[in-house]
Amino acid sequence: MGTQLSTIPLIPVQRKILDLERKYFYILHNTFTSPEFIDDLREIESNIKATYPVLSLFSQKKNKIEVALERLMRFYMYKTIKAESVYHSSLSSDLAYYTTDALINIDAKSIDMESNEIDKDKVIFEKNQISFQNNPVYSSSLPFSGFKFTPRLPTIDPVKNLPTLTYFIKCIYKDDTTDFNLVGISLACMPNGKLGNLFDFDLITGFKTYEYITTTMAGGPLFSAYAPVNSVLPHWSPLRPLGTRRDIYYDTTLNNPLYPTDKIVWAKKEGGSKYEACIDGRTARVNVDTLKIRYDSYNNPWTGYIYIDL
Questions:
Q1: Which residue, 59, 64, 152, 296, is most buried by CB atoms nearer than 10 A?
Q2: All structural domains of the chain with their residue ranges
């Protein structure tokens, strides 16, 4: 995986983005590690503890802090970084707005150490939340070129001609089904897509979830050939790309509808009984170690990831 390379000559737009990413990271760092923010986070923890039976009974979400964390993040961000105007696209993070010099996207994440400890040291995101274009993941020496993950945020916003900056604040907690306790919080900066070559286009380590052609889609005339099947077909070639933990099969005859130059692969969803047509990654993972060492336009080091215990 590629940490930022400091020896590659920079073009002007890269210099601008590198300095903006550092500028706003430290503003967010000061905000989300402030005593006021931590005190409010503790108030949320106290409320969850006091109302735990009610939340367990009536909340539609198992994650009891998710909504409150998003609300708290918005409250502090609108106070800290002045919004010049809203970002109108629905393809965005939890919070997205324009400042005088950037399009800011910030997503709030929350991880339960009881059930999902594996993601404590990962940044988890979907296509709407980044602009970084990664190389295909899990490519092999066989015809399979790897799973693609095409970001949906622009590198430079076409409306205001401002660079897109993406950040993730994550709350780590433990919920043992009887009690709730905060563990820590982290802040990460995911590089803008214009900086891809500074990271060898290689930040994504794998996927938490994948995109499949749904049964509903496969019921229509355009995608009927992609309907789930019960067993391996003769024209499928077995694959076990490095890093995957499941059996997948390369279809030598059927094109991927998202990427017509690629063939489809088939896999069973976790707990699934049928093979389904998998078209690309849906939720990606990045190891936080690759984001820690960053450099601004003058090659001054800074950190693009911080974690504090609570």
A1: 64
A2: 12-206+284-309, 211-282
Q: How far apart are CA 272 and CA 249, in angstroms?
A: 15
Copy the structure tokens of residue 116: 């999902």
pLDDT band at 143 (very low <50, low <70, confident <90, very high): confident
Q: What order do you get walking across the sheet with 95-98 strand by strand? A: 85-86, 95-98, 103-112, 164-175, 180-190, 305-309
What pLDDT is attached to residue 245?
Answer: 65
Can you tell me which residue has the tokens 């402030």?
A: 34
The full DSSP string for 147-179 is B-----S-SB-TTT--BEEEEEEEEEEEE-SS-
Percent with pLDDT over 70 in the chain = 97
How far from 36 is each of 39, 72, 219, 260, CA to CA, in Å?
5, 11, 53, 51
H-run or E-run covering 262? none
